[in-house]
């Protein structure tokens, strides 16, 4: 039976007109590109009014609570961002401050962590103070830092100072930024999708008349077909994530306990199940077939770089639409005769929700001395078109221009696409697509939105805001992690002689390491999260 294929197929030869080059970015799932969508157009009219000119909140309720801050005293603010500062920072910052001085009698200094030891620097600046606004992300320990009181609660500030900004944010996204019932960070207005999937060489699939790898069975047939026709062609970098086809309905998995999306409070013990044994047998079978090297366990080279060089035919792990479309853009010049395609694992079930709203957000630190002005400046940087374009692309005519097709075109090496790393300030009403790869990205995002509407699934990942605090069982967690590295990884890579015996050894070592203690600590937090969020 032919399954509904939800891959995005791209003929790179037909995309010869695509603009080359994509802006550098450092986060795993940030700096995604898009053209204006219908949802963006709906809020454009509201956003193009400056906050001080707009008196009526769209929902008719927030406006009654709003109060205009006192702008009589000048305020200097510091906005802390991750990564390295662009060479053209000063001119862009000056242009931003010229507008802020006029509108709210304030200025902002953008400070950067650099990418060297950024995690330690980020936590240190929250300890020492001197910062007012700060970029936050779930991958930068937002949950733990919020639990520890690093940020200011924003419910009242958003209602009274910036009701227009609140009206522009998806309520589900705001809810996802709550910590213990309090809003702790302001999510990005732009919804981005980081749906996991498999990217594969479509030109080779067509050449050998093979099935689309949209299931585990079809992936096996795809790999066997290429292996038969070209034995020297590498296939997979490793076995990670090939079982993702079977986990599309999992809400969360930790310490071998799985929670389903349909019933997240009911946990299944995967590591001690028969299914785990059968899955590990599949891994061994595929390893024995030569689908990946037996030395893959110790291989530290970049698998995506080798995929781009033709050493492998597909990438089943670590991928998302952003990485895929960026590669599409690059291959128009580096490999114009190749085709690449993308299949999203969970699309058939409708679980392609946008990434957690805490992935890119902005908080006000607990030490901020002027929180009302900080909130107003944040609102302006997001909602004011002129300011927002400055934060994302620099000075028009100097750093960039808008091409005839409406996409972004860089003019200067001093300030590239989203060079400020202010990902949390992206606004879909003003966002420029970064070449035709960005246009393709938005087409994928629009498709995912349609899937969600058709399936009636949540628009935002309801489980994405869960943050584990392992401090009370850190020793057991570390021991379990070490056991998995020593005994679990070889099983997962299929490089063991006897699967059943190796599984038994793994289970015994996990028990000795304190697995039950770690599980109980995690389980309590998970069930509390599920209950509090009504999941």
The shape is globular
Largest sheet, in brief, is: 5 strands, mixed
- Quickly count the helices: 19
Q: Give the number of DSSP strands.
A: 16
Label this structure with key terms.
535 residues; alpha+beta; 19 helices; 40% helix; globular
Overall description:
The chain is α+β, with helices and mostly antiparallel strands and 535 residues long. The model is unreliable at 1-63 (pLDDT under 50). The longest helix has 21 residues, at 435-455. The protein starts with 6 loop residues before the first strand and ends with a helix. Helix content is 40%, strand content 12%. The strands form five sheets. It has a five-stranded mixed β-sheet. The protein is globular. Helix 13 packs antiparallel against helix 16, helix 14 (371-383) packs across helix 15 (385-393) and helix 17 packs antiparallel against helix 18 (499-513).
